[in-house]
Write a structure and sequence with these properties.
By secondary structure, the protein is mainly alpha-helical. It is built from 23 helices and four strands. Strands 1-4 form a two-stranded antiparallel ribbon. A two-stranded antiparallel ribbon has the order 2-3. A hairpin with a 4-residue loop joins strand 2 and strand 3. Helix 1 crosses helix 13 and helix 6 crosses helix 16. It is globular, with a radius of gyration of 21 Å.
């Protein structure tokens, strides 16, 4: 089949559909990162625009995903950092991390890591993915089942689960993810503490998004169910005076801010951060024990893990549609888009499987579709205030619907055999109770150690 023939009309239509169907995700993943949801809207355009210029794939989309959001929040200690220094400084921190990840991606591409990434053991990737998905679930539940997310965290801290968390963190200080696991355990075992209205919104929206494929019209593109669910929840919020957590006010951009090109003939309403100042953000001192080496290692691991998503997406398109791809080029594209993310205050970005599949399904023929989506997000910001009354419970349902099935029934882990199963479980558990970066590293060490001892028997297949 090969790459599609360039058709600008198809790209405009596909880009517009992607722009409309992705808005709830942008807000939801910003909440997962640990800052205000509206920031997901204001910072999404520039990284995707840069991605569209750099990628060689006609369909692949990039952006903040559930994986990059939870990894950034965990690596940087999002909740604790915001409590100590405030949200604005946390935004600077996240932006700086995006810059370092962008630099790491480009350096790694130049030394041939792109091809090496395809050799990561399948058992490690399977366990790592499940651990991250559990982390995504733990970040979404507080705003899903309770009017305000802090309620669940307080209840958990004051329960027996809180005592377990303290004991684990005392024994293993790096076990930052155990708090999220405890939140899930408390919420599931104490349904009587749920707040009725947000819980109903959350559960009904989750079920609708997960089950809608069986009854929605075939002509509606993927993602339409998300738009319908969040729109219905927003209407309910407006007309019935919903009092739980909402997106809230979305600041309007200063008319004089942004980029001005060709002597003011073209104005791009994107606020650019002071990149030199970002490089002076005390990220190593506050998040990596004062070690710049640890910061660079974390950024490199983040970059490598990020790239696995791109490998999976591109390999799928190559197998199903005979669309060739270049690992070094896509790793450079990841780096360029993360540099752009840092420059505008966005969390790290990576390839998005769901958005990429929508691009293919809606007839995108080139990278122009990404650029159209990015420009629509940028220029439509003045009209995004329509999302202000959207309940966070509905946005949480968008996130949960994407991961809950695999968390509850981890079929791919259960399909692993022998030493592969051990490596998968070690990767999953470590990722869940510590951090994605540490979990991936421990999984790789476990794979090498076990296969060295056993002489390679039961060795995982690589992707």
């Amino acid at each position: 089949m090969g790459a599609p023939t360039f058709n600008p009309i198809s790209d405009i239509i596909s880009g517009a559909i992607m722009a409309a169907t992705s808005v709830p995700q942008l807000i939801a993943y910003a909440e997962t990162v640990g800052y205000a949801g509206y920031r997901g809207l204001t910072t999404a355009g520039a990284p995707l625009f840069a991605w569209g210029l750099a990628t060689g794939s006609p369909w692949m989309n990039s952006g903040v995903t559930s994986l990059t959001a939870v990894m950034a929040k965990t690596d940087l200690g999002g909740e604790v950092y915001v409590a100590m220094y405030g949200e604005e400084e946390y935004v600077d921190l996240v932006s700086a991390y995006s810059l370092y990840i962008g630099i790491a991606s480009i350096v790694m591409a130049s030394v041939g890591f792109g091809k090496l990434a395809q050799k990561v053991p399948g058992a490690v990737k399977t366990g790592f993915k499940w651990g991250c998905e559990l982390g995504v679930l733990s970040s979404a539940l507080p705003n899903g089942l309770y009017a305000f997310g802090s309620t669940l965290k307080t209840n958990t801290a004051n329960s027996a689960f809180g005592d377990v968390v303290k004991a684990v963190k005392t024994a293993v200080p790096s076990a930052t993810g155990v708090s999220g696991v405890a939140n899930i355990a408390y919420a599931v075992t104490h349904p009587q503490t749920w707040d009725l209205v947000p819980a109903i919104i959350f559960l009904s929206c989750t079920l609708f998004v997960m089950k809608s494929k069986s009854f929605m019209p075939k002509f509606m593109p993927p993602g339409s169910e998300v738009v319908i669910a969040t729109a219905a929840a927003t209407v309910f919020s407006v007309y019935y005076g919903y009092e739980g957590g909402m997106v809230g006010e979305i600041p309007t951009a200063d008319s004089n801010s942004g980029l001005s090109l060709f002597n003011g003939m073209i104005s791009i309403p994107v606020e650019i951060m002071d990149v030199k100042a970002l490089l002076n953000v005390p990220i190593a001192e506050r998040c990596f024990d004062g070690s710049i080496i640890k910061l660079f290692i974390a950024a490199a691991i983040f970059s490598g893990v990020n790239f696995l998503s791109i490998v999976g997406i591109a390999s799928g398109f190559e197998a199903e549609n005979s669309v060739p791809w270049s690992a070094p080029r896509e790793l450079i594209a990841q780096g360029v888009s993360n540099l752009a993310a840092g420059a505008v205050g966005s969390a790290p970005v990576s390839g998005s499987m769901s958005r990429s599949l929508v691009s293919r399904m809606t007839g995108a023929s080139s990278q122009m579709a990404c650029i159209v989506t990015a420009l629509l997000w940028i220029y439509m910001m003045p009209y995004m205030s329509i999302m202000s009354p959207t309940p966070k419970a509905a946005l949480s349902s968008v996130i949960v619907s994407a991961v809950v099935k695999n968390v509850v029934m981890p079929k791919k882990i259960l399909q692993l055999k022998g030493t592969d199963f051990v490596v998968g479980v070690v990767s999953a558990v470590t990722t869940a109770i510590t951090s994605p970066t540490l979990g991936f590293g421990v999984g790789m060490v476990a794979y090498i150690a076990i296969n060295t001892v056993t002489g390679g028997k039961g060795k995982s297949k690589t992707a």
